[in-house]
Amino acid sequence: MEIKVDDLSGHQVIGLIAEHLQGMAADSPPESIHALDLDGLKKPEITFWCAWEAQELLGCGAMKELNSEHAELKSMRTASAHLRKGVARQILAHIIEVAKNRGYKRISLETGSMDSFIPARKLYEDFGFLYCEPFADYSLDPNSAFMTKEL
C-alpha cells in the first residue's frame, strides 16, 4: 500500500468522495453532516491523502490545519471493496505521523454518534483518541461524537 498526497482530480478519487458523502447522507440528518465535498477538500489548509495498491484506490483521509498547534482529521473513508483490511488503520497512522512531524500538539475529529459509526469510533479509540467537547466551529449535536488526541 502506498499512501500519497492527492489533488482530488482522478475519477476513482472523485467516486470515493461521492460514496463518502452518500454514506454520510444515509446515516446522518443534513444539519449534522460535516463531511467536505471536493471543493472543500481542495482548500489550502487541507492535505488530502489516498492509499493505493497498484492502480486501485483503497481509501482516503485528510487533515485540516485549525491553527499552528491543532489539526482536524477529515474525510476518512475506505473503498467498499477493501473494508476490514486495515486500510483506515494505515491511513490514520500516516496522518498522525504527519501531524507530529508538522509540530501539531493535538489532532481532533468529529464523527457520527449513531451505531453505524461504532467501527470508526473504535478505530479512533484504539489510536488513543478520547471523547471531548466540540472544538473549532462545532457545537453540541446529539448526532456527533467529538474526539481528540494529544500528540
Series of secondary-structure elements, N-terminal to C-terminal? EHHEEEHEHEE
Structural class: alpha+beta
DSSP, total strands? 7
| Backbone CA Rg | 14 Å
What does this structure look like?
The structure is a single chain. This protein has 151 residues and is an alpha+beta fold. It is built from four helices and seven strands, in the order βααβββαβαββ. The chain has helices spanning 11-27, 38-41, 87-101, 118-126, and strands at residues 2-5, 46-53, 56-67, 70-78, 106-112, 130-131, 144-150. Strands 1-2-3-4-5-7-6 form a seven-stranded mixed β-sheet, sandwiched between helices. The two termini are 25 Å apart. The model has no long low-confidence stretch (mean pLDDT 94).
Outline the fold blueprint.
Layout: E1 2-5, H1 11-27, H2 38-41, E2 46-53, E3 56-67, E4 70-78, H3 87-101, E5 106-112, H4 118-126, E6 130-131, E7 144-150
Parallel strand pairs: 4-5
Antiparallel strand pairs: 1-2, 2-3, 3-4, 5-7, 6-7
Short description, anyone?
This protein is α+β, with helices and mostly antiparallel strands.
Core attributes:
alpha+beta, 151 residues, seven-stranded mixed sheet, 4 helices, 32% strand, globular, single chain, 30% helix
